Amino acid sequence: MSMFKPSILTIALATAGISSFASHAQEEQPTTKSDVEVIEVKGFRGSVVESINTKRFSSEVVESISAEDIGKLPDSSIAESIARLPGLTAQRLDGRASRVSVRGFSENESATTFNGREQVSIGDNRGVEFDLYPSEIMSGVTVYKTPNASLDAEGIAGVIDMQTVKPLSKGERVIMFNGQLEQSGFDKLNPDADDKGFRGTVSYIDQFADDTIGVAFAYNTMSSPNQEKRWNSWGYPEFDVDGQNYSILGGAKPFVRSSTLERDSAMLVIEAAPTDRLNMTFDALYVDFTDEKILRGIEVPFAWGQGTIDPSSAVVDAESGFITSAVTQGQRVVVRNDVEERDAELTQFGFNTKYDISDDWSVEFDASRSEVERKDWSLQSYSGTGRGDINGDPDNIGYAFDGGNTGAQFSHELDYSDYGLIQLGGPLTWGESKALNDKYGLSGTRYLDTAQDGFINAPEVNDELHTLKLAASKLLENDYLSKVSFGMSYRDREKSKKSEGYYLTLSDFSLDNPGMLVVPEQYRLGTASLDFIGMGDMIAYDTRALVDDGYYSSIQESLTNIKHTTQSYTVQEKVTAFFVQADINAEVGELPLTGNFGVRYVRTEQSSQGFAAVPNEATDLVEAVPNNVSHDYSHVLPSLNLSLVLDENQTVRFGAAKTISRARLDEMNASVNASYNSERPDENGNYWSVSGGNPTLEPKEATGFDLTYENYFSAEGYFSAAVFYKDLSQWIFDGVYEVDMSGVADPSTGEIPDNSSGTASGKVNGGGGDLWGYELSLALPFNVFSDSLEGFGLIASHTGIEQDVEDQNGNEYELPGLSDKIESLTFYYENYGFQARTSMRKRSDFKGDIYNAGYETQQVNILGETIWDVQVGYDFGEAGVESLDGLSVTFQVQNITEEPFTTLSGDNALQVRDYQDYGRNFILGFSYKL
Asked: What is the pLDDT of residue 815?
């Protein structure tokens, strides 16, 4: 039986720009194309065609984003583009799409690769934050919804592969310049902020030595502003009104934020093909990333404050059980001038070589190293009317909740823009640290716990990954199989986190000088407006300069707070995998059947180094004993992908696979908080009580099935309907397990007890359930209706997802990242050089991870959102303006409807935790190709 031959239409589609299929087709069957009409579509429509072809000719169920040329991805960030694909969506962080969910699973359940190699992450866990990667230096992204045995990454949700350009396949010299000017929709919310930014990219692709050496280089620089008006609540305790309990505002921390994301990126690809049988590729990526935030606001205690709430002022909404407005008298607030800075540096190097030993045999070698280093520096500076809870002028403050989920409006009596009234220092008694009190001799005085005038959080993260792959394949000639591949891979990953915090105190503070400090003139920046929550103007000053110039002294929080010790750790993973895979090329009733089946054996050796931290009862200082825990396990992961071609346009796909997702790295750490009860054991017979990470966690498991119908009715159009199901097991929940505390001393005696076993509370494997859903996707060029509609089209998708998951105790559990409805829609027109499109992405409510005030990951309820963007452009060359050939201009408006990001503290819609208003963003850009 001969190899399956692409049809004439197939070849025409391939020549529209799909290089990956073209090379695949060349491997399988040379085809004469002299009689084929070549369909050439460029720009956004060209990217759509190429993406459709990638999906159509893949052996797996995939989604794809392609770029006609390097630096021409359809959106300004990779995450925004990925979030429009069927079944995918993104969570925004500070207004930018960053964390990608696939088919209802959070970013921690999918793997991310770069040119097929697993990636490190700047976050605390595995999930990649895609705003680290500039779209301008990528040539495309492929999302594998069903795996094959040769994929070198594991994820229950799927694998997201980012790709760089292959310069030899380009076949021509390309020199391109891109530039963009960016404008925030808000005027400056902080006087020292930026509301304007820029982006610039230069890229170069060329071939040398008779097209045997290719080089691609791209450099991108960006300074992108982002602003936000944020309502943030502490929580909602119960409050008695006329003998009935109702929810009331506990306190709030609203503020205005101005951020500038600065990113410099460089990408290099060198490809060599000295013979027809040998291909070598070296690629490198470097990203220098800095995100600086200026935050100013007023922290307002209410029910959890020292003020007195007048019950007669409380307005109760009996239906919701919520106090919608109230007044507290005699309350002091904290005026905040904060600065946050996140610095990250990513380096990635990879080398790949493929050699055809003969016409049938080929071998592949691949090696890579990637590393990311991240340092956070979050500086808080406090000011108010007096030091501590009992000094200074209090205020009478009222709140009234707006309709919907927008937070509250405050009323007040003091002027928070008065530099004579609002002075540097801690206006609330927050500094509950024995080390801090001892430093200033505050124990037994009226100033006990009042020495905290600010704070610094300074965590550091390092993530390093080495990979190696050896593989071979042999072409077969029989009626069923076309190729068999086998090989092995090895990954060595080490991720470490160091947590630290510092109390800040004014340098001149002492018992002899316990007052506040008027902000010196040279550090004053005017005021920032908090009119959006009714607090008027507040003082604005240069906090960083005050710290740099020595106005504050510091002391480590970790001396007396155990959390920094339990959040400092190293996690190591060594993964060895073997795979074998056979490619199918057969016929079923004269219908071509292609695909693959295979199995992957994965063995993991994991370990974690941390600390068993105990507070010394005599000194209140934290003492730590090194803790090192190792664990190993293995998995057998079979997979099957089948594609049955019904005719030239229609294909039915089926996929089945067992997949795993590894535990979150912060849940695998070996650092724990320990205490010893010498009087009696617990219900498990243990004297030690431990809480923290669990280094023996094993991956979550799933057995998945996919069935898809695809109809490619046009070169630019297709319709797809899919159903999918996953049987989940070994999921990770809160629970208890036994731990060995050998060598750890009893903190009350300093001696090592005879009983070393302990009961640990943390994450454990257990429980599971089912997830199922459907996907509908459509790419519809309007020229199928009439030639007069050439250039018009739409791309749409709808995904519905349901789950039934229980923990190990039978309690219902909602998967993080799961929105039960995901939708995307793009209307476009592109013809005669003019381009216009508007895009929407929509998701329903879900649970997601955010960073709380202590830089710890916290899961919250996030409301659904609908985000609209628009872009118009003009390509002078496509319009026939020969003198400006190669030049195009674009104008984008992002978040047209100013969709907020909203989280809740409970089921009550009025209990708003966060309401973040980002406004719109405007981008004017150009691209010039030589």
From this structure: 93
CB-CB contact of 864 with 843 (8 Å): yes
Q: How far apart are CA 411 and CA 360, in angstroms?
A: 79
Q: Is the dihedral of CA 74, 79, 84, 87 positive or negative?
A: positive
Is the distance from CB of 573 to CB of 630 less than 8 angstroms?
no
pLDDT at 99: 85
Contact 53, 14 (CB under 8 A): yes
Distance CA 6, CA 12 (A): 10
What are the structure tokens assigned to 851, written together? Answer: 């960073």
Ordered DSSP codes for 831-889: ETTEEEEEEEEEE--EEEEEE-TTS-EEEEEE--EEEEEEEEEEETTTTT-GGGTTEEE
Average pLDDT value for the chain:
90
Q: Quick check: 634 and 603 in contact, CB under 8 A?
A: yes
Q: Which amino acid is at 70?
A: I
**Token pair of 888 as six digits:** 């195009």
Q: Going by C-beta distance under 8 Å and a sequence separation of 6 or more, which residues neighbour residue 1?
A: 478, 479, 585, 586, 587
So what's the pLDDT on residue 615? 78
Phi-psi region of 440 (alpha: psi -120 to 50; beta: other; left: phi over 0): alpha
How many CA atoms lie within 13 Å of 316's alpha carbon, on the beta-carbon side?
15
Cα diameter, the chain:
96
226-237 CB burial, b ≥16 within 10 A, e <16 = bbbbbbbbbebe
Q: And the tokens for 758? A: 């302990």
pTM for this prediction: 0.89
Q: Which two tokens stand for residue 93?
A: 């962080």
Backbone angles phi, psi at 425, to 5 degrees: 140, 170
Burial class from Cβ neighbours inside 10 Å (0-12, 13-18, 19+) for residue 214 reads: buried
**Interatomic CA distance for residues 1 and 351, integer angstroms:** 37
Task: Give residue-wise pLDDT tens across range 109-138.
Answer: 999 999 999 999 988 888 888 878 888 888
The 3 state secondary structure assigned to 143-202 is: EECCCCCCCCCCCCCEEEEEECCCHHHHCCCEEEEEEEEEEECCCCCCCCCCCEEEEEEE
Cα(923)–Cα(930) distance, rounded to whole angstroms?
Answer: 23
How far apart, in Å, are the Cα atoms of 12 and each of 4, 23, 245, 363? 16, 14, 71, 31
Q: What type of residue is 545? A: A
Task: List the alpha helices (DSSP H) in 363-470.
Answer: 434-440
- The CB-based long-range contact list for 535-538 (8 Å cut-off, 24+ gap) reads 535/254, 535/298, 535/410, 535/412, 535/416, 536/412, 536/415, 536/416, 536/417, 537/416, 537/417, 538/296, 538/297, 538/298, 538/335, 538/416, 538/417, 538/422
The CA–CA distances, whole Å, from 734 to 114, 255, 716, 724, 862 equal 33, 34, 49, 28, 21
Q: Which amino acid is at 914?
A: D
Name the pairing type of β-strands 591-615 and 672-676.
Answer: parallel
The phi and psi torsions of 565 (rounded to 5 degrees) equal: -70, -40
- State the Cα–Cα distance between residues 722 and 720, nearest whole angstrom: 7
Q: pLDDT for 571-600, tens place per residue?
A: 999 999 999 999 999 999 999 999 999 999
pLDDT score recorded for residue 34: 41
Q: How many CB atoms lie within 10 A of CB 41?
A: 18
**How many alpha carbons lie under 13 Å from residue 591 in its C-beta half-sphere?**
14
Q: Is the CB of residue 447 less than 8 Å from the CB of residue 391?
A: no
Rounded CA-CA distance 50/856 in Å is: 41
Kindly provide the b/e burial profile for residues 648-663, where b requires at least 16 CB atoms within 10 angstroms of the residue's own CB.
ebebebbbbbbbbbbb
Find, among 594, 734, 607, 601, the residue nearest to 655 by Cα.
594
